[in-house]
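Re: [help] complex structure
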Amino acid sequence: MERIPILRMGDILLVTIQVDMYDRLAMTLQDDLTTRIAENGARGVLIDISSLDVVDSFMGRILSNISLMASVLDAATVVVGMQPAVAITLVELGLSLQGVKTALNVGRGMTLLRAMIESRTEETEDVGREE
Amino acid sequence: MPVSSHLYTILSNQAPILTAWVAEQTSALADRSDLITASELEAQGKEFLSLMQTAVQSGNLDDIQTPAWEPARDVLSSVSRSRALQGFTPSETANFVFSLKKPLFVRLQDELKNDPAALVGELWTTTTLLDKLGLFTTEVYQKSREQVIARQQQELLELSTPVVKLWDGILAVPLIGTLDSVRTQIVMESLLQKIVDTGSELAIIDITGVPTVDILTAQHLLKAVSAARLMGADCIISGISPQIAQTIVRLGVDLATVTTKANMADAFRTALQRLNITFTRAQPKA
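Output below.
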């Protein structure tokens, strides 16, 4: 079965979607990602969708879900490289992907992800100190 | 003898018809002498008459959409189109064909004065034919005007949606005029494309030139902001006048998720701050 590869870079998982997404593939990706976050103890997920030309409402919801699930597993998610046409489609569909962090490209996404991971770490340290 | 052959015979002797026709037109267009001259009218008339003669020869006078009528139709189209662009009224344009009636009828009357029954038949065929040609002219006129309007609309859209780069990473979209769905769509598309092209993180949408904001306009703006956010860029809306601020609140539109500023300068300052860029006034040289 077709799968989308998940690359590990230290404590960050990198996913580059380069094929047309269909519902089954998206569900598999969601499964794989959550499993890998838990297994590797990843702190951040970067999803690059710059080669996706079409996104439907299901895919939009999957992206939103992945971000929520990752945050439950204590990992930050950034979606990068969304095409203008895709952004317009999602907005017209009424999906503004609340809670999903976005960035223009992989470089900016990495910077944002690092910052997010750092602030999360600080928060936990603060909590530890209070105790 | 088939009905049309009388018309054909008459058309064979072009010169008197043409003279009478040009005279008719000149008197009808008397106050338009600045737009078109008698010699132009004559040239157009002459061309049309000979093509009409060829078409009448084909024998088909009921349907002007047949191939035999194509050259005549082409001439009519070009006449009609040029008149539409010159600013003639529809009636003046249609008159090009209708003014041909009188000269033709006079000639027919001369030709058939001994055969009233045939005359009536001929007149009927001719008048139906000329009516069709006249309607065709008006249709082409209408189409040309519509093309002009469509082109102007397109130009207006292109004119009014520039995306300006203010600084590395800061774009500005000065909006002028009423925002409808089509314009917002175009603004949104060009803004998002520019964000990708320049890798800008911030866009300032300035609505100083937007006279009024209603629910739809506000929704369109919010859509553009959400789309930019999905791509990883943030938007600041600036140029909100006191009146628009009041309207927005009265309409119950929630702009809390968007940074709004009263003028472009404030928005630009905020944008620079977010990108950690600072300016200092240079020390005057002693």
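Chain A has a mean pLDDT of 88.
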